Amino acid sequence: MGQKHLVGEGCILRNMIEGGNLSSFILWGPPGVGKTTLAHIIAETLDREFFTLSAVTAGVKDVREIIDKAKSNSIFRRNAPVLFIDEIHRFNKAQQDALLGAVEAGTIVLIGATTENPSFEVITPLLSRCQVFVLKSLEVSDLEVLLSRAIHEDELLKTKNIDLKETEALFRYSSGDGRKLLNVLEIVVDAQSGKDTIVIDNETVTACIQQNMAIYDKGGEMHYDIISAFIKSVRGSDPNAAVYYLARMLSGGEDPLFIARRLCILAAEDIGLANPNALLLANACFDIVNKIGMPEARIPLSECTIYLASSPKSNSAYMAIAAALDAASKTQTASVPLYLRNAPTKLMEDLGYADGYKYAHDFPGHFVDLEFMPEGLQGTVFYEPGDNRHENALRSYLEQCWGKYYKKDQKG
User: Fold this and answer.
1) pLDDT in the model for residue 412
2) At 207, which helix (H) or strand (E)?
3) How confident is the model at residue 105 (pLDDT cuts 50, 70, 90)?
4) Which residues contact 170 (CB under 8 A, 6 or more apart)?
5) The whole model's pTM is what?
């Protein structure tokens, strides 16, 4: 259903299928829009042997076994088989590396499916060997066709008397996800089993969903609500709420690396220089989660979440770069002072480059009062230390060095 920009008449993927010249590609799109179905259709239409792996459960050994099987069977067939890897973004670097040779040699045609941006989740050598096709959420017209097919063609549903009165709630909870639409439909029908007539309207659908379904959706509105609550709980120093929302995301199937990335951002943006160790721990957490995966990854994620939520907070680094970027955008032509420039040639030295520069380590306390800003920005303060133990020490040092800019007892 849908995806006319790819499989409609004259469109790129349709042309590839009809021409029979299949190359490796990655299908990137939200859940429930037909990525797996499309891979099956392509393999069946072109009469290709079809192997499938889930990146959640498969390892390098499984990949190599399929590649070896494809090589050994190559003398009996003309076209390379299709290897479909669902959730390819969950493959680590070693697993993706194992695919490179076979994709390059044409031993297999790789079709990967991902809900995450391949630019960040797929290694560059593999990405360069694959086209990327972007799939879109299903439109209401697509969902209407799916719903009609399910009611009138499904072996079980077509035997029931279904009174379809309203669809707004069905489509709202589906959020452009065909799989979710069918799941919601099943819940609503099951909730009215034994009745002569099954009524589908907004009130019934909403009641059934609230009673029977955990509606965390890593591709929909609930995803953004939960991650927002998670971020704000860590920022608000509530470790209990933070670990609760962490559990909501993990139980809902959220990618643990997505959570780990958010923790790295939180450590820099909201804790920052109040506790520089927070960023080190968050980075270590990301590395560990990438190495071990779920379910064990829940433990370092919990540790890091609690640590960040319980840490003192400061957004001074975030505010400093925001202010500096704003100033930089307005002063792109501001010249670097000559004495701060490098002078690698005699001509540049004669022009005064580096002349007057004072080497800080030659002065007491390894500090020299020298203007480092370009003309027009002298004395500008971008970094205002936060009011916490670590940054109060930084403020004292900056007051000692730059008392003309940092006033004593002035809190940022």
Assistant:
1) 42
2) helix 202-212
3) confident
4) 143, 147, 181, 184, 185, 188, 200, 205
5) 0.52
